[in-house]
Design goal:
By secondary structure, this protein is mainly alpha-helical. Helix content is 42%, strand content 0%. It has helices at residues 2-5, 36-45, 52-64, 77-87. The protein is elongated, with a radius of gyration of 15 Å.
Amino acid sequence: MSALQRIDATGGPGPSWSNAFRGVPMGDERDSVAVDARVRPKIEALRGIVDAGAVTAVWEAALAAPTGTARRCGSRPAVKDAVTKYTRAY
């Protein structure tokens, strides 16, 4: 991952469906799989199967986490803390 992150992406393709809207902040309202308006109904549809409150808390932590501060996927402290908090019981 470190080697891939060092590659200069200048001039590369912009965010689109073909690359899962790479580089777009969490919750960006573009037509992405991580659009808040798409994620929340999916969480609600899973209520009773998963702890929807915990999943929502993790989603909200991801939305609130600062962008551009983490070099590795999953290393945003707010997201990591929320995932840890809500998965310890399982």
